Inverse folding.
DNA sequence: CTGAAAGCGCTAACAC
DNA sequence: GTGTTAGCGCTTTCAG
């Protein structure tokens, strides 16, 4: 059942059917109703390929994240999908993992699908900060379609970034721990991503402002994994002393809680622990964790709004948006 | 840059270029290399729309789930995407929510995108069991494209289902609690979905087999939410007595843990609690929860394998696959 | 092994 | 208001 069939059955030309389908005003009410009736009767759906061929657009946005099973990414994709859907856009999803080559492959693949725009979710796409070349593929992509980054910053034409103010967040959590008398705060991180670097800077700044030394051994590199973190802490516990833990992911913070449990260290009395992203883990834990809400919903909403302005109204939009985080205080840092 | 440009630059016809692109063997090695070189040089990508128009397929599968922010769905989508990607398929993702009308809309929308097949993730798409009409839209969709259900059962041509054996899982957890001397086991659930019904039947069967009565007041309807469940339990705690909790979602089980904490009931000594889906919550909690691993990865893997058999080899495939669950025992039921 | 040409279903410019 | 027609870029017979 195609446009020709509908035209024949309605006794009009395909042009008229096309007009009806696209809601053109230049059709008489009568013919319009007639065509609509025939369409409904025959359960007609326009062929998106044919349409796409002509318009070179399919109202589709490509979303790439490293791993949708991660609750942060999942939340982001949930927001993006639902709000894009309300604007009539579909989402093609790609989970690229963290490898440089895979990321590039995914970007190229989605680009070849003639997506209207590309969204990259997660700090990992912003490179490790050492090498500008790491992000060349994004600039390359941006020549073909606008690129939107969620929580990553990459410079270049046609690239738009929305980031949480991770610097400020870790600055404040650290300061708050210091205010409560913590002197050796462990900073737990797992990558050199853009946001990872911001978080570390915030931590360092707060220490510096308080006149505390920045100790290399308190920068604790681990994985975003409960068990791994717990075991690593246990392993280092003979030599490493700390009375506060600033985790850059909730799972690491939970690892610290589990560690404390094994060592019979009371949280938060003897050890303050704060998490990040305010995930379900933070409230599943006992005690419940203070955690940074990185305002992902705001980031995503802003991104989609900007995207629509750009795509449909050709408006100028901000290149870099920064959204403040909210520190959700539970018992583990304040007591 | 289209096929004509490449043809011209290579000094061949578009047919030859097309053959090269599609890996046809009827091209001389020499021309093939020539064309390949020109393609690479000009960074040529075939237009998917034009190709789709002719072939009426875009190697794309539609995935619908109620909410990708839910960790169970997210995990499923992660598995599906990665394994479909390895077969060269892309994923269009839709998050439909739980409303009947939204579900139908999403299905129709994806169908109109000429997806090669549709995957429905989650028990909610199997209806509430009362009304066959609820699932008519799925049978309707199946007339146009094969439909695969993850953890839901719907009868009909061209519909293929893969389910976890939830009945057996709750049967065994219940039995295990009974064996440990629990006499009043609270069954917590939140919906009349297909899997919800299976779970309840397993619970009832285990009670019956042990010669215990099935008490209506121990079938506790709540929401898949920690705080809500905790508060509901507190509210009913004056009248409701129980020494075991069989939750059909991890969040409910965590709610029970939080409730026990408020009431100073020791877990698992005084109260056994088991969760479901073996999510990150189960191990974030203190104590860590026994939980049912519903083998989502196996479900998804099987589904994709079958899908490929059907789509690419036209093979007959099983209509209903049932995968046994694994009960991951932690301290909360065994002690 | 290669080329010419007929669609695939739709949109939009152009006539009437 | 409505119809005619020329593409959009590719695949696929059918000839050679």
């Amino acid at each position: 059942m195609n446009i020709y069939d509908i035209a024949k059955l309605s006794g009009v030309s395909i042009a008229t059917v096309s007009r009806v389908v696209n809601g053109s005003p230049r059709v008489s009410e009568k013919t319009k109703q007639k065509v609509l009736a025939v369409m409904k009767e025959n359960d007609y759906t326009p062929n998106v390929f044919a349409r796409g061929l002509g318009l070179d657009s399919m109202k589709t946005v490509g979303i790439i994240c490293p791993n949708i099973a991660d609750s942060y990414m999942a939340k982001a994709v949930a927001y993006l999908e639902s709000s894009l859907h309300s604007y009539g856009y579909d989402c093609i999803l790609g989970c690229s993992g963290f490898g440089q080559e895979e990321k590039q492959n995914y970007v190229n693949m989605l680009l070849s699908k003639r997506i209207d725009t590309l969204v990259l979710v997660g700090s990992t796409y912003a490179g490790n900060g050492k090498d500008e070349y790491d992000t060349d593929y994004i600039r390359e992509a941006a020549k073909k379609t606008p690129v939107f980054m969620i929580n990553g910053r990459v410079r270049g034409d046609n690239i738009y970034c929305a980031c949480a103010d991770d610097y400020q967040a870790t600055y404040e959590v650290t300061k708050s721990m210091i205010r409560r008398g913590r002197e050796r705060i462990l900073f737990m991180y797992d990558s050199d991503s853009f946001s990872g670097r911001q978080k570390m800077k915030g931590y360092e700044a707060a220490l510096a402002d308080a006149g505390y030394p920045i100790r290399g051994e308190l920068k604790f590199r681990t994985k975003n994994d409960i068990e791994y973190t717990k075991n690593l802490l246990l392993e280092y516990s003979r030599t490493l002393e700390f009375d506060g833990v600033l985790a850059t992911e909730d799972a690491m913070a939970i690892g610290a809680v589990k560690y404390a449990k094994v060592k019979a260290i009371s949280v938060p009395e003897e050890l303050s622990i704060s998490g990040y992203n305010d995930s379900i883990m933070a409230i599943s834990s006992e005690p419940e964790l203070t955690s940074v809400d990185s305002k992902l919903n705001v980031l995503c909403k802003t991104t989609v709004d900007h995207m629509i302005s750009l795509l449909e109204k050709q408006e100028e939009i901000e290149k870099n948006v920064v959204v403040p985080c909210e520190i959700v205080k539970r018992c583990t840092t304040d007591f």
Remarks:
- The CA atoms of residues 171 and 202 of chain A lie 4 Å apart.
